[in-house]
Design brief:
The protein is α/β, with parallel strands linked by helices. About 25% of the residues lie in helices and about 25% in strands. The strands form six sheets. Strands 2-15-17-16 form a four-stranded mixed β-sheet. The longest helix has 13 residues, at about 20-30. The protein is globular. The structure holds shikimate-3-phosphate. Shikimate-3-phosphate binds near residues 105, 178 and 179.
Length: about 475
């Protein structure tokens, strides 16, 4: 795919459904009693892998193209996914291995549910997923009493899960990961006592919100800062690099509730909107309206970072879809300046960092990204991928211990070249996303402000999260 410079982007897009929420709607629908009807479901390869796994676990999942035919149109006229839930204990032993394909969310959340079943299952995945760390879920599930083993010497896939009775635990996760948290909360539904899950800062909370909607009993609390006058005994000085625990959050799940089928409307995915937020900001003479963007505060880090860079983004029509906040956004070309990104902000924009790096390259001044080591264990080593791709496109970037410093090539506001709106930030090159959908899409956006085209090798991977990405991008070109 060849992406060439454009003079402007204009128009309106409806952002496709949120991937994280789509996965959860199928999983919770399957273990709830009765039907769950989902509108706005993201039919991407990752979410279809989740549907496939639950079908193999004996759950009937239908696709209804005309919603008016279901419950006299009570769920609207659009397409629906209907999950015929069988309750917490209603899954059947699968006859073959479950295949999570490329999807980390599928394997990690599903493992939590399978840990509580009275049968054995095996989960495998594609080459990329089979390299991603699973110890982070194996360890806490073992503490809960689950018999879970990796067939791989590095604790990666395939996993064999011999489900059974589970104990409620208190677990402090070393990483802020919604996949780990959700795995343990879902296993907690099957435990003999409450489970406490603590994370260093708050990761996306869609599982907690949706579990509450389905009737689950759980709560989240922030660790309170110790008041200064409290420390009668002087505290030992903090070790360099030691984590600050004042951002810690604990979620407690109480077992023993029955989940009931629901109607779910999936908001648009801010991680997909991110490409067009960046595109609208960095392309001259542009104005784009993005409809239906989920703005849950555990996901909206890109908006906060963009604002700190001077972005012109106007949210309107702010509303709720169930427990999830949603808005429409107007994005206008902006003069961006470098910024600092790190700490508790990172989990709120973790999947957006590749395209934020592209924005940073277009900003005036340096941008530093810190505390982003988790990028190393995504669909590719995204720290390495971002640095390689930016360098190929002519950007100076320095790798640091947990991130990078990007030297933006944006011109000073008001300079002649800037006013002409014809600046190219990048030098065209060939980018190999190595099967990573977010790298493919982020660096496609770079092509819009590149002197010669950016060629993305093998764009098939965008079907993981955004099958219509290139069609939507084309629709905005003037
Ligand atoms: C996800 C959580 C995040 C994110 C992933 C989706 C989820 O992963 O990167 O794309 O749906 O829970 P981690 O939990 O590994 O941070």
């Amino acid at each position: 795919m060849k992406i060439s410079k454009v003079s402007s982007l204009r128009g309106e897009l409806r952002i496709p459904g949120d991937k994280s929420i789509s996965h959860r709607s199928v999983m919770l629908g399957a273990i709830a009693e009765g039907d769950t009807a989902v509108s706005g479901f993201l039919k991407s390869a990752d979410c279809l892998a989740t549907i496939d796994c639950f079908r193999k676990l004996g759950i009937s999942i239908e696709e209804i193209t005309d919603g008016s035919l279901y419950m006299n149109g009570a769920c609207g006229n659009g397409p629906l996914i209907v999950i015929h839930g069988k309750g917490l204990r209603g899954l059947k032993a699968p006859k073959e291995s479950l295949n999570a394909m490329n999807s980390g969310t599928t394997v990690r959340l599903l493992s939590g549910i399978l840990a509580g079943q009275n049968f054995t299952s095996r989960i495998e995945g594609d080459r990329s997923l089979s390299k991603r760390p699973m110890k982070r879920i194996i360890r806490p599930l073992e503490v809960m009493g689950c018999n879970i083993a990796s067939e791989d010497k590095n604790n990666c896939l395939p996993l064999i899960i011999r489900g059974g009775s589970l104990k409620g635990i208190r677990y402090k996760s070393p990483v802020a990961s919604a996949q780990v948290k959700s795995c343990i909360l879902l296993a907690g539904l099957y435990a003999d006592a409450p489970t406490f899950f603590t994370e260093p800062s708050l990761s996306r909370n869609h599982t907690e919100l949706m579990l509450s909607t389905f009737g689950g009993n759980l709560k989240t609390r922030k660790k309170e800062k110790e008041p200064e006058h409290f420390s009668v005994i002087p505290k030992p000085p903090k070790q360099a690099g030691a984590s600050d625990d004042s951002n810690e959050y604990t979620t407690i799940i109480y077992p023993g509730t029955i989940l009931r089928g629901q109607r779910i409307t999936v908001p648009g995915d801010i991680s997909s909107a991110a490409y067009f937020i960046a595109a609208g900001l960095i392309t001259p003479n542009s104005e784009i309206t993005l409809r239906n963007v989920g703005i849950n505060e555990t996901r909206d880090g890109i908006l906060r970072v963009a604002r700190s860079m001077g972005a012109n983004i106007h949210p309107f029509n702010v509303r709720m879809e169930g427990r999830e906040p949603v808005a429409d956004l107007i994005i206008r070309s902006s003069h961006l300046t470098g910024t600092q990104i790190g700490g508790a902000l990172i989990p709120t924009l973790i999947d957006e960092l590749p395209v934020i790096a592209v924005m940073a390259a277009c900003a005036e001044g340096k941008t530093e990204i810190r505390d982003a080591s988790e990028l190393r264990v995504k669909e590719s080593d995204r720290l390495a991928s971002i640095i390689t791709c930016l360098t190929l496109l002519g950007i100076r970037v320095e790798e640091t211990q947990s991130g990078m410093i990007i030297e933006g090539r944006g011109k000073k506001a008001g300079s002649a070249a800037d006013a002409s709106g014809r600046n190219a930030v990048f030098h065209g090159s060939v980018i190999d996303p190595q099967g990573d959908h977010r790298i493919a899409m982020a660096f496609s956006i770079a092509g819009l402000v590149s002197d010669t085209p950016v060629v993305i090798k093998d764009t098939d991977c965008v079907r993981i999260s955004y099958p219509d990405f290139y069609k939507d991008l084309k629709s905005l070109e003037g």
